[in-house]
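A reminder from the course coordinator: this example appears on the midterm review sheet, so study it carefully.

Given structure:
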């Protein structure tokens, strides 16, 4: 969703590029940096004992706007964050003779877990108020600590966390839930509660075991997937963009993929644009929205293959009862 500000902001594109990366002072091979995927893969050669990576950056701003706009004290800040560890760091870039903004930001291994997000914020004094955000990158970079190939797309992230006593305080209200689905980030994340159901994570992380253990693993995984598809659909329809006529437009990234996959089951036989218009109409105006929930649940069930998994589980359970009867 494009934010709306009550003060002037940059209209032109703000871009950020990772020019090179060094790990503990040694250059990372350029093949580990993908400008197309906007991703850096830090796991190279199986080395795991590194301490920090330095990313050298170049930012491009719409020059005329940046220099002639109704603001002062314009500053470019690169921002590195990771939600899983609640880490955040920033560094200031400086404009150089080529007209671009250059600088570097350090990623400290001990402050991150799997994948950090790198963005650029342009702040300035506007209307006498300092530190106002006037521009930012539309598409962030990812810095992946565990990937060997710089591939951007991830279907979904899976994180294990202690909801009751872990460092993520925002999970405390959900301490009695075995899992939750977070769709607020660039990649949807399922958080599995290590203090939830005793033994459940061991079963989910296992690969073998008795038939009943396999049944629990498959049905739980299908239920998690069902919850994830449902949450992702609701987030996607709540994040539609609109053209000047008020017609809903397809969002980008994973939200677009979710809608394209689920809408044929939510509103069968409808063209995608027509379906988007009706879904948004029902959601924002209230009529028919509750009735659509059944179709959304059905679509999520098809994507998660919940029916087939439950069928297999029922067969295993009935077979077990038969064996006991004999």
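Designed residues:
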């Amino acid at each position: 969703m494009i934010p709306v500000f009550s003060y002037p902001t940059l209209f032109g594109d703000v871009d950020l590029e990772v020019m090179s990366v060094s790990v503990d002072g040694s250059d990372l091979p350029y093949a580990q940096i993908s400008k197309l995927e906007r991703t850096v893969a830090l796991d190279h050669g199986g080395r795991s004992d590194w301490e920090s990576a330095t990313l050298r950056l170049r930012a491009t701003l719409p020059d005329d706007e940046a220099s002639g706009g109704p603001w002062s004290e314009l500053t470019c800040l690169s921002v590195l964050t990771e939600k899983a560890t609640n880490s955040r760091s920033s560094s200031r870039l400086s404009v150089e003779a080529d007209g671009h903004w250059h600088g570097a930001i350090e990623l400290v291994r001990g402050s991150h877990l799997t994948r950090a997000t790198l963005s650029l914020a342009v702040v300035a004094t506007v209307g006498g108020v300092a530190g106002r955000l006037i521009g930012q990158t539309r598409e962030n970079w990812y810095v992946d600590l565990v990937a060997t190939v710089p591939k951007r797309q991830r279907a979904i992230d899976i994180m294990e966390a202690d909801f009751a006593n872990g460092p993520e305080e925002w999970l405390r209200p959900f301490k009695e839930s075995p899992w939750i689905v977070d769709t607020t980030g660039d990649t949807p994340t399922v958080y599995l509660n290590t203090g939830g159901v005793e033994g459940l994570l061991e079963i989910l992380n296992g690969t073998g075991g008795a038939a009943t253990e396999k049944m629990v693993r498959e049905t739980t995984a299908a239920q998690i997937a069902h919850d994830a598809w449902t949450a992702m659909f609701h987030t996607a329809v709540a994040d539609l963009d609109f053209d000047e006529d008020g017609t809903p437009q397809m969002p980008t990234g994973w939200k677009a993929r979710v809608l394209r996959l689920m809408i044929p089951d939510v509103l069968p036989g409808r063209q995608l644009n027509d379906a988007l218009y009706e879904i948004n109409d029902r959601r924002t105006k209230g009529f028919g929205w509750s009735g659509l929930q059944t179709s959304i649940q059905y679509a999520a069930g098809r994507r998660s293959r919940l029916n087939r998994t439950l069928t297999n589980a029922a067969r295993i359970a009935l077979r077990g009862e038969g064996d006991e009867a004999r």
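The mean pLDDT is 86. The two ends are 61 Å apart (CA to CA).
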